[in-house]
Design a protein that fits this description.
By secondary structure, this protein is α+β, with helices and mostly antiparallel strands. 32% of the residues lie in helices and 28% in strands. It is built from 4 helices and 12 strands, in the order H-H-H-H-E-E-E-E-E-E-E-E-E-E-E-E. Strand 6 and strand 7 form a beta hairpin. The longest helix is centred in the N-terminal third of the chain and has 25 residues. The radius of gyration is 55 Å and the shape is rod-shaped. The termini are far apart. About 26% of the residues have low confidence.
Length: 244
């Protein structure tokens, strides 16, 4: 019995060696698959490690903000550019300050006596630029009177008047605007204007004082306003006749 068990052990060992040799020769797929599995295990192992790294998570979750980005600075620049463009625009609309003094005088060419409404009253506006140091451009004369009893107002071009007057109504007033030629130190000129009152409607003894001013193109007053001119109106009183 002891001899038999030793023989069987030797037989099993021999068979194991035979199977190992024949297994590698006839079953290479099994060995290759075993090698691939072991290779995959070794390659997947380092991928798992960074996923558990705290440093990697911090970099992904907390992006670094750009230090040079300053959003409030943009509207500030826009506002400053708008202010500068607004200032340049207003400068173009605004006339230069008058350097010196412009003198204006008013005259009543038809006299101070009252006149019937069938006649026109004629006034005259005179300007003297001897007190100016620079040329005054774009100026105009504005003549303002109550519109209630005025039938018409007019001024023709000529002399210091560059164009005929333009009549407009501003509320309860008529406004006659007369554009002027350029005024220099050597300029001294005038122009006439006329007022016609409503016939049979203007009461006897009515008087009006035109308010006259010289304005720049931006409407700032450079001479006046003055009311040193009076037009007086007279009218015949209706006479009642007895009938019968």
């Amino acid at each position: 019995m002891k001899l038999t068990s030793q023989f069987m052990r030797k037989f099993y060992q021999l068979m194991a060696v035979v199977l190992l040799v024949f297994g590698r020769a006839f079953f290479p797929t099994v060995v290759t698959y075993a090698q691939e599995v072991s290779t995959e295990d070794s390659t997947t192992t380092p991928i798992v490690a960074p996923a558990n790294s705290e440093e990697s998570k911090v970099e992904e979750v907390t992006p670094t903000p750009a230090p040079d980005k300053q959003e409030p600075a943009v509207p500030a620049q826009e506002e400053s550019s708008q202010e500068s463009s607004s200032e340049s625009g207003s400068t173009k609309l605004r006339s230069a300050e008058v350097n010196g003094v412009l003198k204006m005088t008013l005259n009543n060419n038809t006299g101070t006596d009252a006149k019937y409404t069938t006649s026109s009253h004629v006034g005259e506006v005179s300007v003297d630029g001897s007190g100016l140091n620079d040329t005054l451009e774009g100026a105009f004369v504005e003549i303002r009177v109550p519109a209630k009893y005025v039938e018409t107002m007019a001024a023709t071009a000529g002399g210091i008047a560059k164009e005929a007057g333009v009549l407009t109504q501003d509320g309860e007033n008529y406004v006659l605007t007369v554009a002027l030629n350029n005024i220099e130190r050597t300029t001294s000129g005038s122009f006439p204007f006329s007022i016609k009152f409503k016939d049979r409607l203007t009461p006897d003894g009515y008087s009006v004082q035109p308010r006259v001013a010289v304005r720049q193109a931006d409407r700032r007053v450079v001479a006046g306003p003055s009311s040193d001119l009076t037009f007086n109106v007279k009218a015949d009183k209706p006479q009642l006749q007895k009938v019968g």
